[in-house]
């Protein structure tokens, strides 16, 4: 029955195209799959956590103050547990004035080096107060 359907309706070339298209659709469906379960990564929430056990490229989400400017795009970030060097690109401020009394929330990744002190690379900055 299938043989008759293939030979009269699709032909051999049509069957090959149908099988190929089915394979591509299956591959596209699996390419969009992703893992959504628990993971091993930790997000640092205090400066002391970062300084105690720094892991390169580990994410952080900190609340505190930018207390000092050390140079171009280099600052000191301070929370209730300590202070750390912070690299903050000028465009992250988005034109908002931040003073040493401003409370900010910063997100980004930890940056470690064999020859330099640990620092944070701020990807996003929001003024809270």
From TrEMBL:
Residues 1-33 form the signal peptide. InterPro entries: BOBF_sf, CarO-like. The keyword Amino-acid biosynthesis does not apply. It holds the Pfam family BOF. Keywords: Signal. SUPFAM superfamilies: Hypothetical protein YgiW. PANTHER family: PROTEIN YGIW. This is Putative TIGR00156 family protein. The lineage of its organism: Bacteria, Pseudomonadati, Pseudomonadota, Betaproteobacteria, Burkholderiales.
């Amino acid at each position: 029955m299938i043989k008759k359907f293939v030979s009269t309706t699709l032909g051999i070339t049509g069957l090959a195209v149908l099988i190929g298209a089915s394979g591509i659709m299956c591959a596209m469906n699996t390419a969009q799959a992703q893992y959504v379960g628990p993971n091993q990564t930790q997000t640092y929430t205090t400066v002391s956590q970062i300084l105690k056990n720094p892991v390169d490229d580990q994410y952080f989400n900190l609340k505190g103050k930018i207390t000092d400017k050390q140079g171009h795009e280099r600052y000191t970030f301070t929370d209730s547990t300590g202070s750390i060097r912070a690299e903050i690109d000028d465009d992250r401020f988005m034109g908002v004035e931040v003073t040493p009394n401003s409370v900010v929330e910063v997100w980004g990744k930890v940056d470690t080096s064999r020859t330099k002190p640990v620092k944070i690379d701020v990807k996003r900055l929001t003024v809270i107060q």
